[in-house]
Fold:
Amino acid sequence: MDAPRKKYIIGNWKMNFTPGEASLYLNKLSTRIQPTRKVQVVLAPSIVSLQSLSLQVNRRQFKLATQNFYWRDYGAFTGEVALTQLRGFVGYAIIGHSERRYLFNETEKDIAQKVAAAIRNGITPVLCIGETALERKDGETSAAIYSQLTSGLHEVSKEDIDKVIIAYEPVWAISSNKNAKPATPIDIVEAEHFIRKHIAKLYGKEASEAISILYGGSVNKNTAAGYLEIEGIDGLLIGGASLIADQFCAIVEIAKGVKDERQY
Ligand code: 13P
Structure:
């Protein structure tokens, strides 16, 4: 029998913690979270902390992710960091986060190149997609997801689609946005079905059933179980609550306890 599906709990620390603070925080988490095969815990600190945390971390317990990088592998790109420089430190890369799309004008083409660069460098891309409040209001949720998914996966071949993780993060649900409100399980199920349907169209049924889809947006220890129990949701991408040890550790414990009958 195949192994049960793995749940992913990814903490996106965004632009928080100095390297010293990050180290102390990792230390705190490592005394409280026991490794398990069922739940992959991934921490995404600022790039400036990645090297030191990669020396400190127990990789059986936590994997590291980069929040950003430039998609070319080397060259004259002042101020940028390539995955060839990061791949010794990280196993995952967050790509297409709405803060990068909308605050830093990252284009669909940049995002597609980043997904390709991650695969080329043996790093798992976590491709973030999600509609804005305005798109939702105008009934364009599916169109936004369709377009971000199609363009984000543009460079991904049929052989490589199993290396990609999708994170559905509706922009209006992210806690740093004005009037943020968490998505309801119904919103998430709708989006998850739509994502799998579109992956099936692009890569076939098997790929669509196998791909991991995470939810992100105002998740905390009180709401995590409700999201993790949704069939078809394989984990959580957490911002604010990942910076608070009590919250984050509680969410990991909840993920360990969730039953998932699917075998992919
Ligand atoms: P919050 O959990 O703070 O809403 O952030 C979500 C997010 O942007 C994770 O990438």
Q: What stands out?
A: Residues 185-203 form the longest helix (19 residues). The chain has a mean pLDDT of 96.
